[in-house]
TrEMBL record:
Coiled-coil boundaries: none
PPR repeat segments: 89-123
Taxonomic superkingdom: Eukaryota
A molecular-function term among this protein's GO annotations: RNA binding
Cross-referenced PANTHER family: DYW DOMAIN-CONTAINING PROTEIN, PENTATRICOPEPTIDE REPEAT-CONTAINING PROTEIN
A Pfam family: PPR_2
Organism: Trema orientale
Entry-linked Gene3D superfamilies: Tetratricopeptide repeat domain
Keyword terms: Repeat
Name of protein: Pentatricopeptide repeat
GO BP term, pick one: RNA modification
Length: 221
């Protein structure tokens, strides 16, 4: 991950470390020490571009993290930085998703995840943890997509979670089962029912009700 251009023109360059040899081993130290406001981040950002330190993935990620998460009111700045990243990786997307959730922009966080998938960037466990948090704040996993009748999106998200080794819990199961019925994915619904049986979740009434729903929705009865 490397940033190519600087979105704003600082009034002056800060008196910070100017050579790679003097740069601290932990780049986050410099970023956190220097950035107390958007103006500070703007100046440090310009300095890192000038000294070409921003080509280091860890440095670029921490600039993005400072804007997206650590500084209040800097999300627009973070988005301007993100748009200038050449081929953002999962780390960059994860920072943006976390930042949007932190700023209570949960729908935008889910859209960022959708963009991540569309660009063929592989989500990881950190991605799913954040996305599930955003969905839960919207209501439930299926309600987050259901507002736009995006049931297929629920199933695709769940399948990606399984492929990445994400462990399912009762809340996730309850959210996904109605979506399986809506899109007619009875195979996945059958797998979930077997998972429920194998993991002793049969006592959860809501889960069983959702399982019944998928049977009726899937068969059209």
């Amino acid at each position: 991950m490397a940033l190519t251009t600087h979105p704003f023109s600082p009034s002056k360059t800060p008196t910070v470390i100017t050579t790679i040899s003097e740069f601290p081993h932990n780049p986050k130290t410099l970023i956190l020490q220097q950035c107390k406001s958007i103006r500070d981040l703007n100046q440090v950002h310009a300095h890192l571009i000038k000294t070409r330190l921003l080509h280091r993935p860890a440095v670029a990620e921490n600039v993005l993290e400072s804007a997206a998460i650590l500084l209040p009111g800097a999300m627009d700045y973070a988005l301007s930085i993100f748009r200038r990243i050449d081929r953002p990786d999962s780390a960059a997307y994860n920072v943006m998703i976390r930042g949007l959730i932190y700023k209570k922009s949960n729908p935008e966080a889910i859209l960022m995840f959708k963009k991540m998938c569309e660009n063929s960037v592989q989500p990881d466990e950190f991605t799913f943890t954040s996305v599930l948090k955003a969905c839960s704040r919207l209501g439930t996993l299926h309600e987050g997509y259901a507002k736009n009748e995006r049931w297929d999106g629920v199933v695709k998200l769940f399948r990606k979670m399984l492929e990445s080794g994400f462990e399912c819990d009762e809340v996730t199961m309850i959210s996904v089962l109605p979506a399986c019925g809506r899109v007619g994915d009875l195979e996945l619904g059958k797998w979930i029912s077997e998972y429920i049986e194998a993991n002793g979740l049969k006592g959860n009434l809501t889960l069983i009700t959702s399982l019944v729903d998928i049977i009726f929705l899937g068969t059209g009865d």
